[in-house]
Design goal:
Strand content: 15-25%
Largest sheet: 5 strands, mixed
Shape: globular
Distance between the termini: 47 Å
Structural class: alpha+beta
Order of helices and strands: HHHEEHEHEE
Number of strands: 5
Length: about 160
């Protein structure tokens, strides 16, 4: 094994983990309800995409439920997008988040979660438990309103 590492014909990539906070902790918005989450997301969401394509984002929170950042995980088509659980937790770990809120929009305006939405939420909640990162909610947004899985007892 030692010879393998010293052999110049073998190279490995360097892995860097970083998170750059550009907002002072006291200036970060605090989430205390699903309405807070909706308002924060609505301000940051590209309104041109809200009714056009489905996007999946993750709101990363510290222990005081202050927003560390919003990670745009994916942008898909009119009827769906992919949310890779590994990438959700890569973002949470990079930001050293204590908890997170999952978010995606439904361009159709339908607020009802699909079976796939519920299955993904369950899977991510279980993954978060293993990493000690709480999945607090999963919001479905439209241009007019939102649906909170936590408020509806589905989390």
């Amino acid at each position: 094994m030692e010879k393998l590492l010293k052999n110049p014909s073998f190279q490995v990539a360097e892995v860097k983990l970083s998170y750059r906070a550009r907002v002072k902790p006291s200036q970060r918005p605090q989430v205390t309800s699903s309405t807070d989450t909706y308002n924060i997301l609505k301000q940051s969401w590209d309104t041109g995409k809200l009714e056009f394509v489905e996007q999946f984002k993750v709101l990363l929170l510290n222990r005081a439920n202050r927003v560390l950042g919003i990670y745009e995980l994916s942008t898909g088509g009119v009827a769906g997008t992919v949310a890779d659980p590994k990438l959700v937790f890569v973002a949470a770990l990079k930001a050293c988040a204590s908890s997170l809120i999952l978010c995606h929009n439904h361009p159709s305006g339908n607020l009802k979660p699909s079976a796939a939405d519920l299955q993904l939420t369950k899977k991510l909640k279980q993954g978060g438990e293993l990493l000690d990162i709480a999945v607090l909610d999963h919001l479905i947004l439209t241009s007019e309103s939102y649906y909170s899985l936590a408020d509806e007892g589905l989390l």
